[in-house]
Amino acid sequence: MRATLIASALLAAAAAAHAADLTVTVLDRSGKPLADAVVLVDSSAQGARPAPVLEATIAQEKLKFVPAVTVVGLGAKVSFSNLDSWDHHVILGVMGAGGVFVDPGQNTQFRLAGRIGSKTPASDSKVLAQPGPYLLACHIHSSMRGHVYVADTPWAKLGGEDGKALLNGVPEGPVRVRIWHPDQILDGAPTAVQVAAGGNAVTVNTQIVAARKKRAAPAADNSYPGL
Ligand SMILES: [Cu+2]
What we know:
Blueprint lengths: L1 H14 L3 E9 L10 E5 L12 E7 L2 E3 L2 E5 L2 E7 L5 E9 L3 E2 L6 E5 L10 E6 L3 E6 L7 E7 L3 E4 L5 E8 L1 E8 L10 E5 L4 E6 L22
Parallel strand pairs: 1-17, 3-6, 5-12
Antiparallel strand pairs: 1-14, 2-13, 2-15, 3-4, 6-10, 7-8, 7-9, 7-11, 11-12, 15-16
The structure holds copper (II) ion (CU).
């Protein structure tokens, strides 16, 4: 019995690939680093998987969702907090191609009252049970846009301003790298990558053109009337 247990433990260890760190740099259509890209890695290798992110908080601050893009795992609870002194809505729904709600009738909507002084801000939350991109908006302020990407793989990271995302614990061997970005028109084809034993870095060229960043909101003094 004991020998059988040890033998199966050894077999499991042999089947599990070693994990390494994979750095992915995402470039836009002109070859420049693409900020706010979501990098997803698929591997069929057996072995340990990183724990998914199952909680996240998004603020509404100076007429923006902060952060603008959030990556979580399937079933994550996402909380929203209004830090502005005026009301905001959170309209939350599955996003389709072209940056629109797939089915507005299925959206979640709640209104968060403006914060009074330094009191605890109004908050609410939602559990996201469907993989893929969600769009965030506000009825009162049509310029407010945010995104949540619910990853269906444990290897998922948001890339920085430099286009880079570091994915830890990726199994050595063949993997598939997928990119998602709020401003993409279509899903790009996945990129096949060979993860080396000691980790490696790859660059993914995309056809994505990032929308020009909106100018900072005019409400720096927090006195925006809200309509
Ligand atoms: Cu608003």
